[in-house]
Amino acid sequence: MRDILEEAIKGHNTDYVEVRVEETRSTHVAYRGRELEEIGEASDLGGCVRAIYRGGQGFVSFNSLSDLRERAAEAARYARVVGGEKTVLAPVPVVNEVVPAVVKKDPRLVPLRSKKEILDRYLDTIWRTPGVSSATISYADSYKRKVFASSEGSYVEQSRLDVTVRLSVLARDGGDVQQAALSLGSNGDFGLVENLDRDVEELARKAVALLKAPRIQGREYTVILDPVLAGVFIHEAFGHLSEADHVYEQPALREIMTLGKTFGTPLLNVVDGGAIPGLRGSYEYDDEGVAATRTYLLREGVLVGRLHSRETAGKMGERPTGNGRAIGYRFPPIVRMTNTIIEPGKLSLEELLAGVKEGVYVKNWHGGMTSLEMFTFSSGEAYMLRNGRVGELIRPVVLSGNLFSTLKNIDAVGNDLDVNQGGGCGKGGQFPLPVSNGSPHIRIQKCLVSGA
């Protein structure tokens, strides 16, 4: 394979050429309502060539290695058509590496029939709960082997296993519909899926219980976010602002995201890194052959770093961080997050609660949106806080506000770091890219909460 790839990218009169080849094998099972909607196995083989000439890029994907040199020549022609400036790629070491997949319990060794039997059991559990009106379950696993070669001499073979399971339960009372959801993922461990019976039972009961939960009056509250919602918050609201292609391309954002600027309290430390081991966003090398790093974005509330591809690092005169990622061979790499985490502080959850006379405890999430520094997130569940204790269940709430004001209103960070690995990130038409979000419990003062 190496000889074929290196020969194909030689001598194309460009500044740089790279090739990726990917082989994927996957299984999937999906239910809607009471019915099995989809089940199957799939395999895929393909690749892509990216050529860069005078700042212009040409990109070609393919499904056969038989005419690989012609595909590389085609990408080079496209690059020469659009190139007219200067190619700037941050220098990185030449690497030659073979990276095996992380394997705990290998999903490839579990028959598809057995996977279906486990999910059938969960479906039965959901529908035994009175008040449930609908449900969806989706399971997927994949094994992907990626081979990368560049005209600079780097060559990397890298394999990974990915496992995800997502469950959603709807309960209905006339026109009133409530939802509870669970999303889990793993880097190479089918064991994650096998013993969720109690979690699934609790999920169904929770959806039904929400039908009787009251709504709260919308206003500013002290809120405590659980690790799932806090992790999603920092990913969506701050992580995307730290992706250097956004910063480079938007003058208004460059002015906002100035290194050395204070964004939060000294309690707040935020890191992103594919080099954090064992998570769904982890890897040894990104899709540009750059070693993964652990990059601080905020250190004691101060902006100290951002996430880069080779191109953005070169253009901005900063260090490449190994965040050039593509969802698959049909796409070029762009700047993407990996594992984005608020680092733990020193306080227990009980100590965070003790400081709240009246507030809201918010857990999990259903969705959200951001626009520069403004955000809106909907919770999965919520509880009143009264005199330092978690009180009654209330309807899910919506949190909204200005990111930078909210970061400065974080007045306590817990010591109970947890990482959610069930999500997938979308950007530039590439979804769902495996990522992880993590945080301990955090406490925010003066957060706008809507009960609708």
- Principal-axis shape: globular
Mean pLDDT: 96
From the alpha carbons, calculate the radius of gyration and give it in angstroms: 23 Å
Give the helix tally.
11
Largest sheet: 7 strands, mixed
Helix content: 10-25%
**Poorly predicted runs of 5 or more residues:** none
Percent of residues in β-strands: 35-45%
Number of strands: 24
Name the structural class.
alpha+beta
Counted up, domains total 2
Terminal Cα span? 57 Å
Short key terms for the protein model shown above:
alpha+beta; 2 domains; 24 strands; 452 residues; PmbA/TldD fold; 6-stranded mixed β-sheet; 11 helices; globular; 7-stranded mixed β-sheet
Structure description:
Helices cover 22% and strands 42% of the residues. The strands form five sheets. Strands 1, 2, 3, 4, 5, 6 and 7 form a seven-stranded mixed β-sheet that branches. Strands 11-10-9-14-23-20 form a six-stranded mixed β-sheet. It has a five-stranded mixed barrel with strand order 8-15-16-18-24. The chain folds into two domains: 2-212, PmbA/TldD superfamily (PmbA/TldD fold), CATH 3.30.2290; 219-450, no CATH class. The chain has eleven helices and 24 strands. β10 (295-299) and β11 form a beta hairpin. The protein has helices at 2-8, 68-82, 112-127, 191-194, 197-209, 227-239, 244-249, 251-256, 310-316, 349-354, 403-408, and strands spanning 16-32, 35-53, 56-62, 96-99, 132-150, 155-173, 176-186, 219-225, 270-272, 295-299, 302-303, 324-325, 334-335, 339-342, 358-371, 374-386, 389-394, 398-402, 410-413, 418-420, 424-427, 430-434, 436-439, 442-450. The mean pLDDT is 96. With 452 residues, the protein is an alpha+beta fold. α1 (2-8) runs parallel beside α2 (68-82) and α3 (112-127) packs parallel to α5 (197-209).
